[in-house]
Amino acid sequence: MFRLKLPTDPRWANIAEGNLEEILTDHAWCEIKAASNAMMLINLLPEFTEITTELTSIAKEELDHFEQVHEIIKARGWVLGRERKDSYVNDLFKFMKPGNRKHLIVERMLFAAMIEARSCERFKVLSDNIKDEELAKFYRELMISEANHYTSFLQFAHELAEEGYDVKKRWEEWLEFEAEVIASYGKSETIHG
C-alpha cells in the first residue's frame, strides 16, 4: 500500500488493544505534532502559494483528527495524558541530509511522508485486527483520510526538488532506512512503538 519494506506484525494490534487509553493518548499527540509540522513547513516556504494552501488544509485536518481522538478519550472517561516522546520519529529525523534551503525542505517533505505512510499502515493494522468495533471503524476512516497526506508530501517533494535531486531515488533510501528503524519497534502501545 505505501511500499513500506517491513510491514507491521498484526500482533502489534493486540499490544495496542491491551492499553487503549495509552494508544489513544499517544495517537492524539501524534496528530498535534503532525499539525505543528504542517505549520512549520508553511513557515519555511510561504512563497509557494498552492503548497501553503494545501499545508493549511493538512494542518486543519490533523487538528480535526486530534479533536476526534480527544472526544473518544473523553467519552470513555479518560483524560488526555502528557505528550509522549516518539523515538521512531527522532530516529527518522537523523536520516535527513543537510543541504541548501530547497534541499532541506524536500528532505522535510520526505520525512513527513515517511511518518504519514507508517502511521496510515498502523491505522490499517488497528482497523483490521482490534475487537473494539468503534475504534476499528474509526481507524479505517482515519487511514483513508490520512493516506492523502502521505501522497501530498511526496508530491510536494517532487514539485520543490531542484534539478539533479532524484526524489524517487531518495525516497527509496528513506524506505530502506525506515525498514531498519521500524524493525526495533512494534512492541509497545504507541502508534509508532
TrEMBL record:
Entries under InterPro entries matching the protein: Ferritin-like, Ferritin-like_SF, tRNA-Hydrxlase_MiaE
Pfam families, alphabetized: MiaE
Organism domain of life: Bacteria
Protein name, UniProt field: tRNA-(Ms[2]io[6]A)-hydroxylase
Source organism of the structure: Flavobacterium proteolyticum
